[in-house]
Specification:
By secondary structure, the chain is of the alpha+beta class. It is about 20% helix and about 25% strand. It comes from Ploceus nigricollis.
Amino acid sequence: TECVSGCVCPEGLFDDGRGGCVKQKDCPCIHNNEWYSSGDKIKVDCNTCTCQEGVWKCTDDVCYGTCMIYGSGHYNTFDGKFYDFDGSCEYVATQDFCGDKNSSGSFSIITENVPCGTTGVTCSKAIKMFLGVMKTLSNRSATPLPAILGVIPEAELLYWNRTVGLYLVIEASNGVMLIWDKKTTVFIKLSPDYKGKVCGLCGNFDDKANNDFTTRSGLQESNPLNFGNSWKQSPLCPDVTQEIKPCDLKPHRKSWAEKECSIIQSEVFKICHSKVDPLPYYEACVHDACSCDSGGDCECFCSAVAAYAQECIKAEACVFWRTPDICPIFCDYYN
């Protein structure tokens, strides 16, 4: 036969995308721009995916959704939308009664935000969890305030609270879990039964990030400030009208903030960069490090880096970033 121009594999073999030819059973798979050999496994949320003949085959377990609120007004919704909102008021983080007249709700989680630092940015100071019982967590004290009893008709909700490492965990029998670091980081986890049935600053948990900015009145917003303002608990609170840029207000802190936060984009986190985009977490870190100008500088910085590390762990990229000099944790004390 005559020659054919170009590079081709012999009959029965396949191009492996890396300059070689392999049998079909050995075809690799690609994920986040990284190649994986046949038989390799990766974790996607709570499911395990296995590379088989060039195609990912995944388990179809139903996964809990997670919303993260941390630092000075950073939100990562159940559907993965990352945005900033600096309002000084009480806001609905998430709840399952969303304007439908026929619906009844089993829970509501409220975040109370207060100014932290002198630039006007806000941090979550307290979380209120309504489950028929109300738990108030305040970072003035590591001990939760006494529960205030309420009533939920036709349902008896049980809840458990326990300490896991640095975190206080409250888990309720209706599939709602609250994880708090006793500072400014809160994780809210919901069972998949709530998909598409919740609303608030954490979005609607319907696996689509582009409609997360749904206001209290059910309208779609593109502006995070208008969206956030719609979820305030008291009409007496002022609306947020402009995004605060603390590094512009405190330029003398900017170079320090950028230097400290560069760890997120450094070799230390390299294994995670292809799995979780570091840029929004780096920008949030710089924002926080500039804004914490009335004490707690290190705490703000450490919480911001820990938020990225947490997302890396979820993506199965284990990163060891804490050292005796950078945000140490004295494990013997907690053990």
